[in-house]
Amino acid sequence: MKTALVTGGAGFIGSHLCDYLTDKGLKVICMDNLITGNKGNINHLMKNKHFEFVKHDVTEFIDVREKLDYILHFASPASPIDYQKIPIPTLKVGSLGTHNALGLALKKKAVFLLASTSEIYGDPLVNPQPESYWGNVNPVGVRGCYDEAKRFAEAITMAYHRIHKVNTKIARIFNTYGPRMRANDGRVVPTFINQALKNEPLTVFGDGRQTRSFCYVSDLVEGIYKLLVSGINEPVNLGNPDEMRVIDFAEKIIKLTDSKSKIVFKELPVDDPRVRRPDITKAIKELNWKPKASLETGLRKTIGWFKQK
Ligand code: UDP
Known about the structure:
The protein is α/β, with parallel strands linked by helices and 309 residues long. The chain has two domains: 3-178 and 215-242 and 276-292, 3-Layer(aba) Sandwich (Rossmann fold), CATH 3.40.50.720; 188-210 and 243-273 and 299-308, UDP-galactose 4-epimerase, domain 1 (Alpha-Beta Complex). It contains nine helices and 13 strands. The strands form four sheets. The protein has a seven-stranded parallel beta sheet with strand order 3-2-1-4-5-6-11, with helices on both faces. Strand 5 (111-117), helix 4 (144-164) and strand 6 form a beta-alpha-beta unit. Helix 1 packs across helix 6, helix 3 packs parallel to helix 4 and helix 5 (188-197) packs parallel to helix 7. The longest helix is centred in the N-terminal third of the chain and has 22 residues, at 87-108. The chain is globular and about 55 Å long. The structure holds uridine-5'-diphosphate (UDP).
């Protein structure tokens, strides 16, 4: 039986990964310090004898006794509101946390997968963004704590691959949504859905002409797994290339929730990327992966989940 360590395993994407990997017959050790993660996301797995939860902050030395075949390093705040509130833990988990997780991968001879992000492209001057684009990041801006931590994480991951020959993978994850997002995490999908369900105004930032491309979580997790077991060591974009304006997204949410909500405009946050859309040519060609869920299908599931809550 193969064993995987998922850091940040009680978070939104991390917990879906724990589900996916246990379903695949792996033993899963889920590690989380529960700063932005939530035990409610993994409660249903606690009775599985091949699942274990360890509360630990990966910026401290990671002590795992078992053999490990895979390390999936997903620990990090990921919502702009979260990481701007706790920029220092965000910088530490991307740097020290990634160093510790890589050291563990070296010791255990485990495959290492880094959860990187489209934020490494910053406010991109190229759209869509291919992996070959180096990005346009403001290092000293309010998003710098996350963007630069992840850029450092990519750099140290490649260094461990080149110097220590660790079998590393880098997933550049674009906007992902689905059940288990925190209603108040500030990101656009849970925010708009919860505003619409309460018939409160939807808060569109700026003029709403900035774009994002949203990937349903089950698609993303499948892409992560395909990358994990692939022979690729260079970064791969994972996301849905279906790009839309935030204003159109707000209208879609109002329609899908049958809401009476209006739209109000608020100030655009500093350094908010104006466009974002993954070029997934590489994932299609080399992983034979592309997202399957339409935005409407994914949103209906997500709305249903928030309603139930
Ligand atoms: N956004 C918005 N209203 C909100 C929350 C977000 O208009 O209440 C916008 C935000 O300015 C950005 C986009 O939605 O352009 C996506 O924001 P999110 O926080 O989800 O993540 P990002 O993609 O910026 O990391």
